[in-house]
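Justification of computing resources. Each target in the renewal requires a structure prediction run like the one illustrated here; the chain below, 198 residues long, is used simply to show the kind of job we budget for.
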Amino acid sequence: MKRKLLSVVAALCFVAGARAQTSYGIKAGLNFSKLDISQGNLSASSDATTNFYVAGYADMPIANNFSIQPGVSLQGKGGKVVGEDAKLNLMYIEVPVNLVYSIPTGEVGNIFLGAGPYAGFGISAKAKSGNISESGSFSDAGLKTFDAGANFLAGFKFANGFLINGGYSLGLTNFSKYPDETGNFKNRIFSVGIGYQF
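Resulting structure tokens:
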């Protein structure tokens, strides 16, 4: 009985200690997004369009130099038709959960590397061709609102909490409602940004 009690107390102390070490951060930057389009044996990528992202996250240590970073972000995605003045801008709310490894570099700060899954919900779609633009919901645009995939990130966090980061987002979900007509659409995003961890 005493051993069980001690185990419970130790577990509670560990959870309390982890909670005390949890910190929070914000990030913002640019997305260079493309659409990967495939149908049958044919595949192509759109040109990149420039968009933005804003994110908040919690950094929860789980082991030496390892932490889990769940968060929520507003992500601009989409793509541009190759060789033409036509593009599709998509806005998502995303929930990523990344596992992050930090490499100390002395008193200056830490290099960090991470990866993890994300799930997203599309909130608006805007198509533009020349001077003509049209906005609406994902459903209006013939797109599914749900997106999911994998994130990869790297960067440097200075000792004062300021950080610079880059990342790549690999969409794994086809979000076209009519793949037989339009093909399969998947998101591909390279991002760069800055942030601060409190």
